[in-house]
UniProtKB/TrEMBL annotation:
It comes from Qipengyuania citrea. CDD domains: ParAB_family. It comes from the Bacteria. PANTHER family: COBQ_COBB_MIND_PARA NUCLEOTIDE BINDING DOMAIN-CONTAINING PROTEIN (PTHR13696:SF96), P-LOOP CONTAINING NUCLEOSIDE TRIPHOSPHATE HYDROLASE (PTHR13696). Pfam families: MipZ. This is AAA family ATPase. SUPFAM superfamilies: P-loop containing nucleoside triphosphate hydrolases (SSF52540).
Length: 269
């Protein structure tokens, strides 16, 4: 690991895409692999990610157990410089910084996205969500134009490429994560896949399969537990086991630093 923590930002200007749930599970998966994780929640109104980690801490205290976790901090009433100062102070010794942004247009969220090492944009498998990154023709579903958000990230990546050498930073890796694919009609899924493939070639993101819509994610929130907490979830049904494999597949697709070593450490638990 480098001295500077690898920064993973979960950003999408639309709500309801599973952004916070994905962020929490990625953070816990990294902690299970032995990484030190600092988390920052930019949505000071909802605070979904920090609430999840608070519930996790309460469960550990109530049950008298220790689980891999992350320290979560709510970012409120700060400008860009103030947020960067907070992150620097609270992530000393961390391997990863996880940032969850609001599901709306927000200046700090834009800044966080442009400063990310790995930018994760979850989207439900629909053209309503695809509209965040691009618009398509109504007749043939060909990509017509980039959205403002896609142009913002494109410009950030260009700027990053010009300064990455002098700042000793790798290029930004942008990953669009397709959640809820099981709820999409097959023909529409193929159209979305075609549009994403075309768009990815234009702006350089990768596409990853994310988390299906499963009741288990909503059920786990009050306890703060995750699908990785084997031995604390009771008997898992087949759907839960499949969901766990989906999560592991997503973690592998993100290609984060030290992923092979963490996968071995997590498998040994």
């Amino acid at each position: 690991m480098t001295a500077r923590p690898h920064r993973i930002v979960f950003a999408n200007e639309k709500g309801g895409t599973g952004k916070s749930t994905t962020a929490v599970h990625v953070a816990v998966a990294l902690a299970f692999g032995g990484a030190r994780v600092a988390a920052f929640d930019l949505d000071h109104r909802q605070r979904t990610m920090c609430r999840y980690f608070e519930n996790r801490a309460e469960t550990m205290k109530r049950r008298g157990i220790e689980l891999p976790t992350a320290q979560c901090h709510v970012v409120e009433d700060l400008d860009e410089a103030g947020m960067e100062a907070l992150i620097a102070a609270e992530s000393i010794g961390a391997d990863f910084v996880i940032i969850d942004t609001p599901g709306r247009d927000d200046p700090l969220a834009r800044h966080a996205a442009t400063m990310s090492d790995t930018l994760v944009t979850p989207m439900n498998d629909s053209f309503v969500d695809f509209d965040l990154i691009g618009q398509v023709e109504s007749e043939n579903f060909k990509v017509r134009k980039l959205s403002f958000y896609a142009e913002l990230i494109w410009e950030a990546r260009l700027k990053r490429s010009r300064t990455s050498i002098e700042q000793n930073r790798a290029q930004m890796d942008w990953v669009v994560v397709r959640n809820r694919t099981g709820y999409t009609e097959a023909r529409n899924m193929a159209r979305i896949e075609q549009a994403l493939t075309e768009m990815s070639k234009r702006v350089g993101f990768r596409v990853a399969k994310g988390l299906s819509e499963r009741v288990v994610y909503r059920e786990l929130f009050p306890s703060g537990l995750t699908l990785l907490d084997k031995g604390h979830l009771g008997d898992l049904g087949t759907s839960h086991l499949v969901a766990r494999q989906e999560l592991r597949g997503l973690i592998a697709t993100l290609r984060l630093p030290g992923s092979e070593a963490r996968e071995k450490a997590a498998a040994a638990r």
